[in-house]
Design brief:
Blueprint (H helix, E strand, L loop, with lengths): L7 H12 L2 H21 L4 H17 L11 H19 L18 H19 L3 H12 L4 H8 L3 H18 L7
Length: 185
């Protein structure tokens, strides 16, 4: 590339390289700093980090201008490569996220003693239910097994709402008395 074909930015960088021209460096900085910051922000760096990287890149441009070869690349390609390498370095320095420790849930499967206890309680409940009157068993089955509201049970059976409530209450009272040894102390 002939000197006449070089971009303005490449000419500024050559002035910095050859004469340590501060004015040319100021132009480079003013031209590239906002563009580098935008590139770094798009790459995922936060505002403060992006500004730090821009400062670091431009300092490298000043300090390493002697290494710039206009026959190999334009100033923009050389400067953007420095910025990209700094960004990669930042990502490499970040510690990898620690994996979350997942607590293994306690087994929801009941163990043998629990199974035995549940079977014994179920047998006691069946015995206690058999002691109830049939109309109490029917009212409790509708209310607790089928989860029907009292008004719906009244509608289905054709009995008054007060009668349904009384049968459920009396049945539960009898079950409480018969199953007192099952209640936790």
């Amino acid at each position: 590339m002939t000197p006449a074909e070089r971009t303005e930015q490449t000419q500024w960088l050559l002035a910095v390289r050859d004469r340590r021209d501060r004015e040319a460096f100021g132009r480079l900085f003013d031209f590239f700093a906002p563009r580098l910051k935008a590139m770094l922000l798009r790459g995922g760096l936060r505002d403060g980090s992006a500004e730090d990287v821009v400062q670091d890149v431009m300092l490298s441009v000043w300090n390493k201008a002697a290494q710039f070869d206009p026959h190999r690349a334009e100033a923009s390609a050389w400067i953007y490569r420095i910025a990209r390498n700094r960004q990669i370095d930042l990502y490499r320095r970040k510690p990898l996220p620690e994996p979350e420790l997942v607590q293994e849930p306690e087994s929801s499967e009941p163990d043998a003693p629990q199974i035995l206890a549940m079977e014994q309680e179920a047998a006691q409940l069946r015995e206690a239910l058999q002691k109830l009157r049939p109309e109490q068993i029917e009212a409790l089955r509708h209310a607790y097994m089928e989860e029907l509201p009292h008004s719906e049970i009244s509608r289905i059976t054709g009995l008054p709402l007060g009668t349904i409530k009384s049968r459920i209450r009396l049945g539960l009272d009898r079950l409480r008395r018969d199953l007192t040894d099952l209640r936790p102390q």
